[in-house]
């Protein structure tokens, strides 16, 4: 009997593979980040350079831009693996598919979500937000984009077999993402007003844990349906 | 790995593709050391049959059984004994030949670098070890996906058109691989329309119509 690979080893291998692929395709991976930077830069140009005015809407702008650019990146998260047959091999690998997809989404967040979180203090400063909101902004975006990666992963697994699935994906995921947007923007707003932002952040954390604990199972169930075709 | 006593059985399988009834009450039994060559024109349901046997597709009625248990139920235990070569090669064009094998087979079992070199030598791709798959020809890609079969010693091979894009040397390679596999007591289900293993008495033809 051939020794089979441990689950942890398999998960690490999938993450490493995603990072290697991203390194060779960095222009594709950078797209969501560029989109995010462009939207947040265009906003003051189209409205007003007045920092006092921008400050009022700044938190919302950062959050909407982050949400849309994450969605943009999520559409293709499983597509190439399904099209080239890798996903079939994963289904038949004997490893739990939910954990392999979990690894894939972790890698996806590291490549698209984390950069957004890291540049957001700079973007916030450009929109006139004071440094005092940085902790609330960074925490809420980290929790929010990570949750969105799972929600989007479920949607992407469901729509991967559908041609032009991106519209369907947005319709599926946007309603689920609304609470993230509301609580995320609220955390920034409260922090800007000098109030503690713990309430909305805890709600975001609850959604984060819910999504990451149950999401991979939903993704693998959706993926099995999509790969039947 | 021991394939002794392993039996793959198709029991009255019915499957539909869209609104076409492609597999009608299909039954056969395959024992250790036997090969089933599935033949028939394009679109007749060869791939559908192979996907049902793999457990990727649930049949409308009937079942595929491995060692007497329905493949959908056995799950991981069945997959550990199964190697499936689909019509898609499961290769990433931005990775090199070596990386492709490392990441694809590594998910299933720990893999040493020397094993990969050995497998690439068997399929005569030593020159391409560190070339990205993007620059390889269609035939070379097919050889690379055949290399998986050495790295994952499985009792049951399910191969969908393994000789696609291969030259005559590649065809001979596939034949000798399957012969060796049967000789070790393995089972194989192969979809093919070219002449493949026509003179071997261990190979049975299953004509889909």
Please explain how this structure is put together.
The complex is a heterodimer of chains A (229) and B (209). With 229 residues, chain A is mainly α. Chain A has helices at residues 7-24, 26-46, 51-74, 79-83, 86-91, 97-126, 134-159, 165-192, 198-228. In chain A, helix 2 runs parallel beside helix 6 (97-126), helix 3 packs antiparallel against helix 6 (97-126) and helix 3 (51-74) runs parallel beside helix 7. Chain A is elongated, with a radius of gyration of 19 Å. Chain B is an alpha/beta fold. In chain B, the strands form 2 sheets. A 5-stranded parallel beta sheet of chain B has the order 6-7-8-3-9, sandwiched between helices. In chain B, strands 2-1-4-5 form a 4-stranded antiparallel beta sheet. In chain B, helix 4 crosses helix 5 (113-122), helix 4 (97-106) packs parallel to helix 6 (138-151) and helix 5 packs across helix 6. The model of chain B has no long low-confidence stretch (mean pLDDT 90). Chain A binds chain B through residues 1-5, 9-10, 13-14, 16-17, 20-21, 24-25, 80, 83-86, 88-96, 100, 227-228, and chain B through 1-2, 54-58, 76-77, 79-80, 82, 84, 86-92, 94-95, 99, 102-104, 106-110, 152-153.
Topology at a glance:
The complex is a heterodimer of chains A (229) and B (209).
Chain A: H1 7-24, H2 26-46, H3 51-74, H4 79-83, H5 86-91, H6 97-126, H7 134-159, H8 165-192, H9 198-228
Chain B: E1 7-17, E2 20-31, E3 35-39, H1 46-54, E4 61-66, E5 69-70, H2 71-74, H3 76-80, E6 82-85, H4 97-106, H5 113-122, H6 138-151, E7 156-160, H7 168-183, E8 187-191, E9 203-207
Parallel strand pairs in B: 3-8, 3-9, 6-7, 7-8
Antiparallel strand pairs in B: 1-2, 1-4, 4-5
Q: Shape of chain B, please?
A: globular
Q: Which sequence of SSEs, written as H and E, runs from N to C of chain A?
A: HHHHHHHHH
- Specify Rg of chain A, calculated over alpha carbons: 19 Å
Low-confidence parts of chain B lasting 5 or more residues at pLDDT below 50?
none
Assembly category = heterodimer
Spatial shape of chain A:
elongated
Tell me the Rg of chain B in angstroms. Answer: 17 Å
Query: Quick one: biggest sheet of chain A?
Result: none
The number of distinct helices of chain A, counting runs of at least 4 residues, comes to: 9
Low-confidence stretches of chain A: none
Chain pair sharing the greatest interface: A-B, 32 and 33 residues
What is the number of E strands of chain A? 0
Distance between the termini of chain B: 35 Å
């Amino acid at each position: 009997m051939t020794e089979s690979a441990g689950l942890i080893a398999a998960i690490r291998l999938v993450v490493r593979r995603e990072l290697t692929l991203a390194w060779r395709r960095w222009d594709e991976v950078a797209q969501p980040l560029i989109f995010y930077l462009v939207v947040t830069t265009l906003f003051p140009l189209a409205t007003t350079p007045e920092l006092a005015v921008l400050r009022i809407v700044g938190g919302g702008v950062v959050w909407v831009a982050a949400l849309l650019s994450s969605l943009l990146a999520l559409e293709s998260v499983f597509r190439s693996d399904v099209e080239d047959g890798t996903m079939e091999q994963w289904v038949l690998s004997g490893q739990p598919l939910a954990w392999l997809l979990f690894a894939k989404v972790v890698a996806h967040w590291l490549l698209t979500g984390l950069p957004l979180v890291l540049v957001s203090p700079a973007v916030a400063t450009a929109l006139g937000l004071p440094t005092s909101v940085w902790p609330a902004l960074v925490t809420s975006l980290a929790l929010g984009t990570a949750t969105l990666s799972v929600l989007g992963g479920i949607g992407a697994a469901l729509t991967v077999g559908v041609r032009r699935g991106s519209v369907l994906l947005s319709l599926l995921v946007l309603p689920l993402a609304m609470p993230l947007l509301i609580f995320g923007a609220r955390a920034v707003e409260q922090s800007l007003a000098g109030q503690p932002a713990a309430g909305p952040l805890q709600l975001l954390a609850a959604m984060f844990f819910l999504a990451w604990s149950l999401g991979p199972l939903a993704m693998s169930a959706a993926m099995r349906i999509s790969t039947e075709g | 790995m021991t394939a002794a006593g392993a039996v793959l059985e198709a029991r009255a399988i019915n499957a539909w593709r869209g609104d076409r009834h492609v597999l009608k009450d299909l039954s056969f039994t395959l024992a250790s050391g036997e090969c089933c060559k599935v033949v028939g024109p394009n679109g007749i349901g060869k791939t559908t049959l192979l996907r049902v046997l793999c457990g990727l597709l649930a049949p409308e009625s009937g079942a595929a059984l491995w060692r007497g248990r329905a493949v959908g139920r056995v799950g991981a235990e069945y997959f550990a004994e199964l190697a499936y070569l689909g019509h898609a090669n499961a290769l990433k064009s931005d990775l090199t030949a070596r990386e492709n094998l490392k990441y694809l087979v590594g998910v299933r079992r720990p893999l040493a670098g020397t094993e990969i070199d050995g497998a690439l030598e068997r399929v005569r791709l030593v020159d391409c070890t560190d070339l990205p798959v993007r620059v390889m020809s269609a035939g070379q890609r097919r050889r690379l996906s055949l290399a998986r079969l050495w790295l994952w010693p499985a009792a049951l091979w399910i191969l969908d058109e393994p000789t696609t894009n291969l030259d005559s040397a590649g065809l001979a390679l596939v034949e000798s691989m399957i012969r060796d596999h049967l000789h070790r007591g393995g089972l194989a289900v192969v979809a093919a329309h070219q002449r493949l293993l026509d003179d071997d008495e261990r190979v049975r033809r299953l004509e889909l119509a």
